[in-house]
Amino acid sequence: MALFEAKNITKQFGTTIALDKVSISVPEKSIYGLLGPNGAGKTTLIRIINQITGPDSGELILNGKKLTAEDVLAIGYLPEERGLYKKMKVGEQALYFAQLKGLSKAEAMRRLKYWFKKLDIVDWWGKKVEELSKGMQQKVQFVTTVLHEPKLLIFDEPFTGFDPVNANLIKNEILFLRERGATIIFSTHNMASVEELCDNITLIDKAKTILEGSVDSIRRQWAANEYDIVFEGDVTLAESGNFTIMSKTTEDHHSAIRLKAAGVLDTNDVLRAAIASGKVVSFNPSLPSMNEIFIRVVEARN
Amino acid sequence: MSKIPIIIKREYMTRVRKKSFIIMTILAPLLMAGLIVVPTLVMMNQQQDHKKIAVVEDNSDLFKGVIKNTKDLEFDYLENVNVKDLEKTFEQSGYYGILYISPEIVNTPNAIQLISKKQPPIGLLDHIERSLEKEIERQKLMAYKIENLDAIMKNVETKVSIQTKKIDQTGQVKETSTGISMALAYISGFLMYMLVFMFGAQVMRGVIEEKTSRVVEVIVSSVKPVQLMLGKIIGIALVGLTQFLIWVFLTVGIVSIVKTTLLSKGNMTEMTQNMSKNIMSQDQQSQASAQTSEMSPQAAEFSKLFTSAMNQPWGLIIICFIFYFVTGYLLYASVFAAIGSAVDNETETQQFMLPVTIPIILALMVAMGTMQNPESSLSFWCSMIPLTSPIVMVARLPFGVPYWQLAISMLLMLLTFGVFVWMAAKIYRTGILMYGKKTSWKEMWKWLRYSG
């Protein structure tokens, strides 16, 4: 069941159309990726979901009911640009935001201690935000976003500014939040994280949805009937009308071959042909990465 | 609604704990008290400063004995001295300076010189000029050969000193001092201007800070923009009130401490007693002023000032000041908040600031004019119009304002500030989440008319 749905959202700024009949449907307890090149309209959509701006037309539905102003309380939002008071101390600030979200001081304190310890930022409690680096600020902001345990979490570019170690830390936290029952929407340019995290995605380009669905089905859909096969020994595969050798490397008594099969052949046909040619060590249908799909789709439109 | 207090608390606490706030709060009353106490100290010290002046006339004794000695000034009339020689030695002989009068003085009034090592005080010059003027006048009159001139002169001589008394609504007569009223009008008008401007601008900066740092985007998911705006405005208002009240207490404290220590010295003791009597009961005032006349002129002057200062309607002034500060500040702060919400950074505020600054500056100018003429119709109207009334009305208060005027002014103020806050909230709600667009007045007008 979809926890959140946006139907035919259209938004226009002056003469430019920011969103043109964009719809998304986010299943409960899943991670939903909003992808798209810069200026595609991702942030506009997120701002509409958060009711920071209103759509010109279209509907927003949460839990089967129209989204109301009160519902924003059930949403945790991590904006792309950091929304923290620079001159305020980290701890006080986190406490302040938590109280605004409706937590009591004691409860906020308890949860903050837990999260600060978990993200290893306990030492920053008394520091001013302006003394922290961008990535450090983002960790603080992350904590303030998830602290009140909202049902729906929206992260706008959550990985920018993080080093690989911390990006991984946040990635794990996002997965952990899903396990605990949260539904997450996030926008990103980082395609590797999409493959690792997202269950479903929507790709927006120039205000329009151009690709939509679960990550697995999209990758299969874009697969070009290519296979990675590793043989023992030096094996030569005969090229024919049905098979094209894309690449071949021989190393350490093994040869790795990337092979493109003609559209009429299915996986079984390729596997049979491979077995006939030599001793197969491994056989993988090669799925395109989200990165490749992204580039191909967007470039095809230009 | 329960979230506004949380916002107020943050706005208040972050500001009150700032070093700049603490320093301002402590230093300002010291400065204020200094402004009151230092001139008093200077005045008192001056009389101990005894000066001896050598008077040298060129080949005549026309003015011998004309300039009378006073408590602090002593004039020695030297004869047969060369000024040039004396110039080198006068200091060793204990003279403060040499007054050189040339015989042409009767016709050319500037043929007179005061030679000294230091810039002579204005009081000394005044005394010499007045004495000589009178003497020359007398000599010129004598040239007309009028009979009984001396008698006529004595008869003509008059000295005027106005005593101002004010009758209040209950018919009580109080001794007042225009000087004190003026000073008070000046201080309250200026203080109001400063507070409204300073804290209004703080609201604007706070709003811009929240907008540019995108804090608003995070916060609007928890509170309504209007709540955020009200919380900020009220929080900063409390900061202003805290500062003002601390200032009042500290200033009163410092002034009274200094006064008691000063007055308990020497010949001032009796004066203190008189004054305490004055304060205790109005009936004894005539008796008290009879006593004051027996005192030294400075002490009497001082006592009078103090009495009339005490006769100011302090309670009314402070209550009205707080009322006008709160409402005037709310009015302007909401305008400032609306401006802050409409721009992306502080430099962009310029185009909107001018129309806001004009009424405030105008009010300050009218308030200064009020000190000269508190009853002028300009002062009256400006103390009614809500945009200028906070500053002008507090400047009028020390001169006495009829209650009906005060009531109308306050009522208008309450109505207007309500309308302003409401309009500002509408602009703020749209502006605070708008980025990258240069805002114009037209645009703001459009936001104002958005419904819902």
Description:
The complex is a heterodimer of chains A (302) and B (452). By secondary structure, chain A is an alpha/beta fold. Chain A has two domains: 219 residues, Rossmann fold (3-Layer(aba) Sandwich); 63 residues. Chain A contains nine helices and 14 strands. In chain A, strands 6-7-8-3-9-10 form a six-stranded mixed β-sheet, sandwiched between helices. In chain A, strands 2-1-4-5 form a four-stranded antiparallel β-sheet, with helices on one face. Chain A is globular. Chain A starts with a strand and ends with a helix. The mean pLDDT of chain A is 87. The two termini of chain B are 18 Å apart. Chain B folds into two domains: 287 residues, no CATH class; 97 residues, Periplasmic binding protein-like II (D-Maltodextrin-Binding Protein, domain 2, 3-Layer(aba) Sandwich), CATH 3.40.190. With 452 residues, chain B is α/β, with parallel strands linked by helices. At the A-B interface, strand 6, helix 2 and helix 4 of A face helix 1 and helix 7 of B.
Distance between the termini of chain A: 36 Å
Task: Give the largest interface.
Answer: A-B, 29 and 20 residues
Total domain count of chain B: 2
Number of strands of chain A: 14
Chain oligomer state: heterodimer
Shape of chain A: globular
**CATH topology title of the largest domain in chain A:** Rossmann fold
Q: What is the average per-residue confidence, as pLDDT of chain A, rounded to a whole number?
A: 87
- The secondary structure category of chain B is alpha/beta
Side by side, the strands of the main sheet of chain B go 2-1-3-4
Beta-strand content of chain B = 5-15%
The major pleated sheet of chain A works out as: 6 strands, mixed
Unreliable residue stretches of chain B? 266-294
Number of domains of chain A: 2
Order of helices and strands of chain A: EEEHEEEHHHEHEHEEHEEEHEH
Over all CA atoms, what is the radius of gyration of chain B? 30 Å
